[in-house]
Every structure is written in structure tokens, then in C-alpha cells.
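We treat protein structure as text, and this decision shapes the records that our systems exchange. The remainder of this section carries one protein's record, kept here as part of the documentation:
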Amino acid sequence: MKQPYIVGVTGGIGAGKTTVTNQFLRLGIEVVDADLIARSVVAPGSPLLKDIQAEFGNSMIKSNGELDRAALRALIFSDENAKTKLNALMHPVIRDQLLAALERAKSSYVILSAPLLFENKLDTLCQRVLVVDVPESEQIARTQARDGVDANQVAAIIAAQISRTERLARADDVIDNTLPITQLAETVSQLHEKYLHFAKSQ
């Protein structure tokens, strides 16, 4: 069976990856989203959620049985050891689900959207990488508005990701996501044509 042509899409927190991947969806391209998979594998009652509860305690679980993301985020950003343990639990499960979803994709090429594409070495699965880029000040402002968190926490998340300079240096393509939506749609359409060509000739 022919392997899918995979385009990785990444960017720092608040860069607007979803805005970009939604444009590819509109063009009929399937998107495998690592964030959505990371949420689904810790659904109430899931084996992984039980493992997290056993490792980090009942305070990580809300009264309705859901993972308390805010509590977990606060813990891993204050305790490097806890972060390492959480990654060891979650990453193999997420990777298995990602690989299965990529295998199932039927579109001409497939988008793998992951905020930590480089950090988790998911770029090794991709034939090409598109980076969605905005200035750091914009990342902070957008994430604060979206998640209702303070600037220090956003800055800590940005510091935990690879630098903007390195991310851009490792990109095959870059989208400036400060552009108006009409210009963004046009840029995505041009990239779409390019990726269709690459996928056909692989």
C-alpha cells in the first residue's frame, strides 16, 4: 500500500495552527491533529487517565471524572521530573494513535498538526514541514485571550518549546499568520497546489 505524503504543520503556542489547518480541511485535505488525539487518549475512564491518576494523585482528576488540565499544566511547569514522567506515559500512546490515523488518511496528502513536532521528533514522519509563525508578543496576547492565563505562564510555555529562530530554520515552508484571512487562504491554496504536485511525484 502506498504511504501517504505527510506535511507536518507546527508553530509556537498561539500561532494559529488551527486557523491554517482549517483552510486545508476546506480544500479536502485530512488533518491529523496531535492536540485532539492527546485529549482523546485521556478521556474519562481511559487506561491512560487511570495511569495519570495513579502516578500524580486524585487532585489531577475533576469531580466529573475528567482530567484537570490546569492542575496538570501547573505541576509539569513547576516540576521537571513530573513532566518527564508524564511524557513517558503519554507520548507512546499518542504516537500509536497518530500513526494509525495517518495510515487511515485517504486524501491526496495528509496534514500532521503538532505543536511539538520538532521537540517530539514527529518531523521524522513528514516529507515536508510548514511552520505557522507570529511574533512572540502576538503569541502571548492570543494565548492570554484564548485560555485566560497570565503572561508569565504563556512565557514559560514558549520557553519550553524550541526557539522561534530554530523552528523557522527547520521549516520547508512558512506562513506569516498576522496576514488577513483572505491573504492566508490564498497562501494556503498555493501551498496546496505545491503539495499535490509533490504527493503525485513521490
Remarks:
- The radius of gyration is 18 Å.
- The beta strands are 6-10, 30-33, 110-113, 128-133, 173-176.
- The chain is about 55% helix and 10% strand.
- The mean pLDDT is 92.
